[in-house]
Structures are given as structure tokens and as C-alpha cells.
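Bit of a strange request maybe. I'm writing a small parser for C-alpha cell strings and I need a real example to test against, not something I typed by hand. Could someone generate the C-alpha cells for this chain?
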Amino acid sequence: MRRWRGNQWLVLATLSLGFFLTLLDLTIVNIAIPAIRQDLHASLAGIGWVINAYIIVVAALVITTGRLGDLHGKRTLFVTGVVLFTLASVASGLARNTGELIATRAVQGLGAALLSPQTMAIIMVTFPAHRRGVALGVWGGVGGLATIAGPTIGGLLVSSLGWRWIFFVNLPVGLVATVLALLVIPEVGTGRRRRLDLPGVLLVSAALVAITYGLVEGQDYGWGTVWSFVTIPLILCVGVMLLAVFLVVETRRQDGDPLLPFPLFRDRNYSLMGVANVMLSVGMVGMALPLTLYLQSELDFSAVKAGLTMAPSSLVAVVVAPFAGHLADRGGKYLLMAGFVLFAAGLTQLAIAAAPAARWYDLLPGFLVIGLGVGLAMSPMQTIATRNIQSELAGAASGVLNALRPIGSALGSAVVLAILQNRLATHADYGAALRVAMLVPIGVLVIGALLCPAISGPARAPALPQPPAGAGRPVRSRPS
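Reply from user aminoacidic:
Good idea to test on real output. This should exercise your parser:
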């Protein structure tokens, strides 16, 4: 058993397994919504909170938990997160009413927030820079697979076993991930104790809760009044102001142990990839729910058929991502650009093909191209982001990137669903409404492609000094 500890590929497999669970639960619930509503007699608002409680908790805490990994050990937080996530999944499957399901989903979010940033951070300190692209390629491919495969796996489970099994299925996977983590992942710490930036934690958590809540709940309140004088725009403004105060506080703490080390953002690649993470999340989640609704409501596909229709994109992404990660070690910006462009092209094909009587094979080309785009984008994006980051900042770097992902997801979902609902209110058919709504993720992905030329390539090794002109051959010592 001892010989397994620290094995790079076993460590990567374990981390990818935990990461897969957290991203799968971002989308797997969507396809089970009709079954959950019917079984628990849930309101639309209640179902919204089943989805959003998870997203809000992850977004609010992931920067803090990433930094906690830097301060107190990444393996400890990873194992704690996997165990908590697994137990909360079982509790979600046993929920007897909407309130219990919302509460257990929030605990799932806490588990996901604890483990997610540790996955990338441990990869960064386990793999040397020249091999990191392959590792992040596998990790990114698993992430892309989980996000897109949610409807497929969820459809199969809901149709064959019932909605509760979208949560119960996490139990065996979580147990395997826990055992493997204890066996193969060495503790990765900083070597010295540091104090947590508590004011920073409180400010950034409150800011991210307000911003994420405003985005995910805005549509339900018509972007107007929530209660008394409290409105969605006011909540979003408060979130932005708290974020500004957080940045001011962090400016004064840079000489100590800040929650958000500013040297991260002096690296142009890291800053650009933070924006790219948001854009890719807008594209992925901005397409997932509307397309799931289109397949099940407009085309009357079963949950299984809807999931299988979307499955080719998952399969292509998971095959392509490791190869893209390997190539990203040599640069990656053109791979990333191609990924964004292909993702946008695949969405365009789906929008054009989304007719009231479309067949599954009419949509197949779009899903295949989307899978290729996601596979080419996910891996280079993470490789480029972490290329110049020091190991002691790995947790903070991973935490920020993981916080941006759910914010991008919430933003994409909010904007796309708002446009979709607006178009349907004018009595447009679903296909026509979908074509208009898809302009948002398509446009965001095109902008992401236009940012790629600003990425800097990997640093070259310094050239060996040349002998002065006229110098003879170096003298070789002879054996005595």
C-alpha cells in the first residue's frame, strides 16, 4: 500500500473522481425536476432552491476553502469534502419534502466547496510544470464530461430507478474516492502555520452570496421586488459593493496572510483564464438547461432519450481533453481559441436545427462539435492559468478559478432563461425562442476566442552560453 502513496497517476485518478462528483451535481438535477416536483409536490420556487442552494454555497465558500488548503493541508480538506458530500448525497436521496432536500443540497455544496479547489491545487504541486498539461487535460476532460453528462446519467437513473438515485449513485463513488485519497494522496502543506484572513472570509462570502443569489433568483422575481424595499438590483449592488470593500481590505493585508494574494493577478495568463472560465461556464450551462427543456418539452423526448441525445458531446470531450492538455504544455492559446470557436459553432448548428419536429440525428452534428470544442478548451485553459503560479499559492489560485465557474454558470443560466421566457411570452415557438437565447452563449464564446491572442507562451529555457570566438574544443579529462 505504501508504494501507491504519491503515485502521480493514482493521485490524478482520485482527484478527478472527486471533481467529477461535484460538477455532475451542477446539472444532473435539471433532468429530474419533473419527477421531483411530482413526488414531493414541490413548487417551482422550491425546485429552484433545490438547484440554487448548491450553486450559492459553492460560489460563496470556494475561495475560502482554497486558501484553507494552502494554510492547513490540501489532502485533509479534500477527504473532508468528499465524506461530507457523500453523506449529504445520501441524505438528499432520503429527503421527505422540499425543505429537507434544499438543506441537504446546501450541505452538498459545502462538501463540494471543500474538495473542488484542492483538486487543481494538488495537481499543481504533484506534477512538474512540463507534465502538468497532460494531468490538467485529464482533469479538465473529466470536468467537461461531468458537466455535459449530467443530463445523460440523470435521464438513465430517473427513468430506470427513480429520481432519488441521482443522489444515491454518489455513495459508491464517494466511498472509493475517500479510500483512494487516504491511500495515495500525500499531505501537501506549506510547512508553516498561517492564520486565516477572517475579515476577508466574511466579506467575500457575503459578496458572493449576494451576487449569486441575485443572478439565480432574479428571473423568479422578475428582476424586481423580493420583499419590501429589497429588490434584485439592490441585492446585486450590495454584492458588488461588498466585493469592492473586500478588495480594499485585501490590499492592506498583502504583507501578511491575505485570503486573496494579489500576485496571482500580476500573471496576465492567470487573469485572462479567470475571464475565460466565466465565459466557458456561460456557454456550458447557458446551453444545458434550455436544450434539456427543448428536448423534453418541445420534442417530447423521454429523460433517457434526451440524455442519450446529448451524450455524444460528453464522449468526444473526454477523449479529446487529455490530448489537448498534452499539446497545451507547448503553448495552448491556439488550441483554446479553436475550442471556443468550435463550441460556438456547435451551438449555432443546434440553434438552426431546433425545429418543432427535429429528430435526434438533426442535432447530432451540433453536439459532436460542442464536445470537440469543450475538449479543446477545458484543458488548455487550466494549463495556461496555472503555468506560472507558485506552489504556495496553488490553493488560492484554484479557489478563485473554482469560484468564477459557478458565477459564470449562474450568469449564463439567468440571462439565457430570461431571454427564453421573454420570447415565449410573445407566443414564439420554442425553437425560435431558443435561437434568440442561444445568441448570448455564442457571443460570449466568440469574445473568449478573441481574447486568446493576448495569452503569452511558456517561458523558454535560457540558452547555454556559447564559447568565445576562436576558442578550441573543450579539453576532456583522460582516465588515469
